[in-house]
Amino acid sequence: VEYYLDNIQRESHLNAFLEVWADEARSQADAVDAKLAAGTAGKLAGMVVGLKDVLAYKDHALQSSSHILDGFKSLFTGTAVQRLLEEDAIFIGRQNCDEFAMGASNETSYFGPVRNALDPDRVSGGSSGGSAVAVQADLCLASIGSDTGGSVRQPAAFCGIVGFKPTYSRISRYGLIAYASSFDQIGTLTRSVEDAALLLEVMAGPDEFDSTVSKEPVPAYSELLTPAPHYRIGYIRDCLERPGLNPEIKAATEEALEVLRGQGHVVEAVDFPYLDYIVPSYYILTTAEASSNLSRFDGVKYGYRAPDATDLESLYKKTRSQGFGPEVQRRILLGTFVLSADYYDAYYTKAQRVRRLIKEKTDELLRQYDFLVLPTTPTTAFHIGDVEQDTLAMYLADIFTVQASLAGIPAISVPSGTDSEGMPIGLQILSGAFREEHLLAFSKLVT
Ligand code: GLN
């Protein structure tokens, strides 16, 4: 704990943590020491963990890096966080992220961007940017983030670490601030696949507080990490021919596929005809869900309240205009538009249908192949400010991560070398739903 606290202080310019729980972490560590001595310590004893600012932890500030939740403290601890505590994880602090997890560069945070530790002029990725940099810069051993359309995988790729999103519904969302409820999933940012497996094992499983959570049994993931000798691997031909894909990332992906072929696995190109529809359907559906989820922040129940309101309507308008940043407002407006009576069928219903097609085709491929391999991102970490004003470019950069989110399947990003400027490249692997133990075991072959 002292080691990480020193590092956090020294690297405070990275802006990874919004709050550090130094004294609490020290007393948690003392308690864990006592349990270790007594032989009663849990599976995570000694693991120093950071929490993205979207996870409820009783009596601790929680604000999704938004002005609108200023001063809000959580009244309860979410299920995943509670399970970590019960296995003796030590919480070191609350991590910066994009506002309401909306973004891919951590630049929409009310508290400013997180800096990439390899080059502080570059972004961390997002939305779990603080969580990724905290692991990258050795400010904690592991971070818990959330992934709606790539938010643990993409920053993990930009920072050269492992980012893992389990199957939708594998981990309870109770205590996770909602962005788009049919996509949101808690995920991990770690240095190793082993740590990802262990954390999943602790957090996963049924929960009476989340009716959508799966009742599938939870395997002992951390004990099932031996890869099989032969796998069938598919890669989507068009992904590698995508305009805008950095040639060095393309080369790194092809090299990884070649290595796998050399190890005796079957590696084949496959066609996926819906690549162009992935990003539009993702943004129609997630903004629709967000516009509904974020309606609760009205100045009455939580956090910030505009001081100069004169009646209820002006209270709502002023609080939300002042409390939400521009990206969140854009998404609420977009979502409200696609759900409006005149446009519902043209946009929302159609996007739901497209989601179904994407899911069915992806599931079909994952019956033919054990895994799909593709890049995590089209570029490496870009410079702070470079893409921020170009909303469409920022959305389109999610092209490789949102397929798994639309399909609800697990996906992991593992480090796969660097570009010529030394910035990390991520390789992404997708598997069928609830096949995490196979996905994690396989990932070890490419890390
Ligand atoms: N970049 C994507 C978005 O802005 C993903 C965010 C996320 O997974 N929370 O929606």
Automatic annotation (TrEMBL):
The keyword Oxidoreductase does not apply. Its EC number is 6.3.5.7. It holds the Pfam family Amidase. It catalyses: L-glutamyl-tRNA(Gln) + L-glutamine + ATP + H2O = L-glutaminyl-tRNA(Gln) + L-glutamate + ADP + phosphate + H(+). Residues 1-440 form the Amidase domain. GO terms for biological process: translation. GO terms for cellular component: glutamyl-tRNA(Gln) amidotransferase complex. One of its GO terms (molecular function) is transferase activity. Keywords: ATP-binding, Ligase, Nucleotide-binding, Protein biosynthesis, Transferase. SUPFAM superfamilies: Amidase signature (AS) enzymes. The keyword Isomerase does not apply. The active site is at K52, S127, S151. InterPro entries: Amidase (IPR000120), Amidase_dom (IPR023631), AS_sf (IPR036928), GatA (IPR004412). Heterotrimer of A, B and C subunits. Allows the formation of correctly charged Gln-tRNA(Gln) through the transamidation of misacylated Glu-tRNA(Gln) in organisms which lack glutaminyl-tRNA synthetase. The reaction takes place in the presence of glutamine and ATP through an activated gamma-phospho-Glu-tRNA(Gln). Belongs to the amidase family. GatA subfamily. HAMAP family: GatA. This is Glutamyl-tRNA(Gln) amidotransferase subunit A. It comes from Hymenobacter crusticola. The lineage of its organism: Bacteria, Pseudomonadati, Bacteroidota, Cytophagia, Cytophagales.
